[in-house]
Specification:
Structural class: alpha/beta
Number of strands: 10
Shape: elongated
Strand content: 15-25%
Number of helices: 10
Low-confidence stretches: 146-158
Mean pLDDT: 88
Largest sheet: 8 strands, mixed
Distance between the termini: 31 Å
Helix content: 40-55%
Radius of gyration: 21 Å
Length: about 280
């Protein structure tokens, strides 16, 4: 069996950099991928963020199963004791809800500062998460609603700027990237399926075959049949044959088909699919 290969060389540095940024903020916005809420969540997030207040975004809801989005949001709230917002970031109402929730979460923290005799200030927040879950999109949508950059803060490099979203919220304009350091191959495969791992770390054919299995195990076999027009067993080879994608010797072109399947899933063309069900 093929494996997803991790490259841990920069992990310690990435964690140090992330902790340095986190020391400057009041509220952490953690972004998860709604198609794989469990696998895209960092299991040691509490060790990473300490006692910081947290808002969780279940992002890419436009690509995932709406029924499961609701169930996952409830489950994550129960387990994390943090509010969860389901979003695809395409709706301005979602952006307003995120900003309002940050203000609400930060309010007790700001009141505590004033009690200590400090001047009132805007709550400082940053966006964290695994690669490609939508951190940069979240920042860009929030910044679009915000004003000019307010300049560097002490302890942050000059490349990192704070942006005033409104008079109550400031946002660090660079995302906190959580390094993917699991040894769990099932989670690794799911992260590869949603493009959260560098393509250098895996073989497309292996991941595409695993993705077809995962989609069927999750109960979406009919979506695959409808999209790929396959009546027999749903395999890489049968999908290639259905499209008449052949190579020398009339063999199915599994390389081309694998990339095609991964792209279709990542763009939501097969349908709204969630690969993980919330535990009961």
């Amino acid at each position: 069996m093929a494996h997803i290969h991790w490259f841990p060389g920069h992990i310690a540095k990435a964690q140090r950099d992330l902790k340095e940024k986190l020391s400057l903020v009041d509220v952490v916005v953690e972004v998860l991928d709604a198609r794989i809420p469990y696998s895209s969540a960092y299991k040691n997030v509490r060790n990473l963020i300490g006692n910081k207040s947290r808002l969780i975004l279940l992002n890419k809801a436009d690509l995932s199963d709406p029924k499961l989005n609701k169930l996952w949001a409830q489950k994550i709230e129960e387990e994390s004791y943090a509010p969860v917002i389901v979003t695809d970031l395409n709706n301005q109402k979602d952006i307003n809800t995120i900003i309002d929730k940050i203000v609400e979460i930060a309010n007790p923290i700001m009141l505590e500062l004033v009690k200590k005799g400090l001047l009132p200030r805007a709550a400082r927040t940053m966006v964290i998460g695994m690669p490609n879950v939508g951190k940069s999109s979240t920042i860009n949508r929030l910044i679009r609603k915000g004003k000019a950059k307010t300049g560097a803060k002490a302890g942050v490099t000059r490349q990192q700027q704070w942006v005033r979203i409104n008079r109550k919220v400031e946002l660090l304009d660079t995302p906190g990237i959580i390094p993917t350091t699991q040894d769990d191959q099932t989670q690794a495969i799911k992260l590869a399926c949603v493009n959260s791992i560098s393509e250098n770390a895996y073989d497309n054919e292996f991941v595409a075959r695993e993705l077809l299995k995962l989609i069927q195990e999750a109960g979406y076999e009919e979506l695959l049949r409808q999209y790929y027009k396959v009546e027999d067993e749903i395999t890489l080879e049968n999908i290639a044959l259905a499209r008449n994608w052949l190579i020398k010797g009339a063999q199915p072109d599994s390389t081309r088909t694998a990339q095609f399947i991964l792209t279709n899933f990542r763009e939501g063309k097969i349908g709204k699919i969630t690969l993980e069900k919330p535990p009961v």
